[in-house]
């Protein structure tokens, strides 16, 4: 059974993300704070710097020996399948 504390944990993790997305959408669509060129620059920054550095920080601080073996196997299999379909 799902407890109220479980629901609170999920909502406290998800709501800030949705608030940020709604504010970003509103700032471009209705408030005209950013131009399309500025959005392109922000997108490029996020794609080239922010996401790779955040991913590296997460991967570097993770101990793979404490992870579930079945999860690692499923993740590896999914990536191999994507790479195989990419090159075929």
TrEMBL record:
Transmembrane recorded as keyword: yes
Pfam families reported for this sequence: Mem_trans (PF03547)
GO biological process: auxin polar transport; auxin-activated signaling pathway
Membrane topology classification: Multi-pass membrane protein
Main location: membrane
Compartments, record wording: Membrane
GO molecular function, one term: auxin efflux transmembrane transporter activity
GO CC, one annotated term: plasma membrane
Keywords: Auxin signaling pathway, Membrane, Transmembrane, Transmembrane helix, Transport
Transmembrane portions of the chain: 7-28, 40-60
InterPro entries tied to this protein: Auxin_Efflux_Carrier, Mem_transp_PIN-like
PANTHER family (alphabetical): AUXIN EFFLUX CARRIER COMPONENT 1 (PTHR31752:SF18), AUXIN EFFLUX CARRIER COMPONENT 1B-RELATED (PTHR31752)
Family: Belongs to the auxin efflux carrier (TC 2.A.69.1) family.
Protein name as catalogued: PIN-like protein
Organism whose genome encodes this protein: Vittaria lineata (shoestring fern)
Highest classification ranks of the organism: Eukaryota, Viridiplantae, Streptophyta, Embryophyta, Tracheophyta
């Amino acid at each position: 059974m799902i407890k109220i504390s479980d629901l609170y944990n999920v909502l406290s993790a998800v709501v800030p993300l949705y608030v940020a997305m709604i504010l970003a959408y509103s700032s471009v669509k209705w408030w005209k704070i950013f131009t399309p060129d500025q959005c392109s620059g922000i997108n490029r920054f996020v794609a080239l710097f922010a996401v790779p550095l955040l991913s590296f920080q997460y991967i570097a601080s993770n101990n793979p020996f404490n992870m579930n073996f079945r999860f690692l196997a499923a993740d590896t299999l999914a990536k191999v399948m994507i790479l195989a379909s990419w090159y075929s």
